[in-house]
Design brief:
- The chain has helices at 144-147, 305-310, 447-453, 487-490, 511-528, and strands at residues 14-16, 22-25, 46-51, 64-69, 101-102, 127-129, 148-156, 161-170, 181-185, 189-196, 198-203, 206-210, 214-218, 224-232, 249-250, 254-261, 286-288, 314-320, 323-329, 336-341, 346-349, 370-375, 382-389, 392-394, 411-419, 434-437, 467-469, 472-479, 484-485.
- It is mostly beta strands.
- The chain is globular.
- The relative contact order is 0.18.
Length: 532
Amino acid sequence: MTKSAKSNEDERMYQNGFGNEFQTEAVTGALPKFQNNPLRTPYNLYAEQISGTAFTKARHSNLRTWMYRIRPSVSGYETKSEQNEIVGEEEETACSPPPYTKYKAMPWFGNHNPNNNNALIIDPNPLRWKPMPIPFKEEKKVTFVDGCQTYTASGDVGTKSGVAIHLYAFNTNMSSDRNNTSMYNSDGDFLIVPQFGTLKVITELGVLMVQVGEICVIPRGIVFCVDVVAAVIADGSDTTEDGTTTSITNDDGARGYVLEIYKGHFTLPELGPIGSNGLANARDFQYPVASFDDDDDDDHNETTAQNNKNKQRYRVVNKFCNKLFERVQNHTPFNVVAWHGNYSPFKYDLSKFCTINSVSFDHPDPSIYTVLTAKSDEDGTPLTDFVIFPPRWMVMEHTFRPPYFHRNVMSEFMGMIYGRYDAKSGSGFGPGSASLHNVMTPHGPDRETVLKEDGRVEGSVTKDQPVKFTGGLAFMFETSHVLKLTQAALRAGNNRDMEYHKCWEGIPLDLVVLRKKNHESTDFIMGNIGLN
């Protein structure tokens, strides 16, 4: 990919404020002064709008952005004489004449058609997976678009209802892949959670540098590509006594999690009685500034066959109804010189989350740790919440402080970014791991956590002594949908932890004490009435 005309890798090169109306230009004067699409734009750029909501959506929730680009998105398609087929998938999708053809790759996004071999499966058991291995570059080059694997999903993309959860592991930059690969998602929004490796997310509207401990959101329809800058090793092998991990850098790949929503967009949760501040503050969300690639020669208007033959090709992948299609074009999609609007990718540093917790007694519900939410049609019940369990003080008195034993009307998919989770003191849920507790599936702290909290093992702290948990950063994708599983998620060879259920074996049973107390009470009562 050609050198960017303007880089925003510097932390200062962002615009701040969740949901704000932004305007930015990589070349001074590129934005029209007051019109959206004047007859002649500055520098003869093309005006193009992307709408994230219906035109008639209420103004406070209407999302759209005007882009001013060197070439419109619809131009520059290459003609292909062949029909590509997705490897390993039944022929279900008819491709009309190009530009779009089927993407030559293994199925990525689960394929929700129940008539093929990748039908989604229901399973009420508690499930856990070990970290997805990053493929060796020497064996196979894998990009973000090829390195994602759907684990769970629910709903239907055709009716824009539901969610999906993917895990990714890749070793090759999309920008250096064949034909400079980029992609966009017609099905919904992506929320990306890196666990290993700093990501450089190049989008139509600018560049986001997303480190481990940060997240980014790519709205529906925005073209982007994902590169890895460096990886932070967080496998737990270098964990210190307080649970933190030392880290080294590595350039060999990246790993993480993706939450996809088929309907609506992510918003900040309401604060209610908390007040006007707290949790994820709007000012800490960062949006890109305009940044573009100019791959055209000075004589870009020439359309001779020789010029077209020598021109660089760009591959754009489209996720459409849970299938991947591609088009090839003769110009970069990252050619937006200026833009204004409120529909844009953004990132957030999770360390800036203002944690709310109990200062008297009882463990609050995990909804108090919600960073972002997506609304459903039922008031008070989200389609999904993105929740974190960050470093925090725990000072509750007379309280079992770790997350409590639970059965939930919601489905809970958890991941581990670094360190350890305070409800899983035993091994098995390290960085890069994942777990699923579906609707009403019992779950809770493991045996080691219960023993430590009850003061039954050496090293436990006094119950009411304040403790600052700094040992790790876990998160949860919580949804009101029942999450169904792909075949890949259920395969034992696909990093599934087949002994997850054993983490609850050996939880102390005080039935002997209970029986003794009950027997003593019975003897006392019987004695008082003269029956023993």
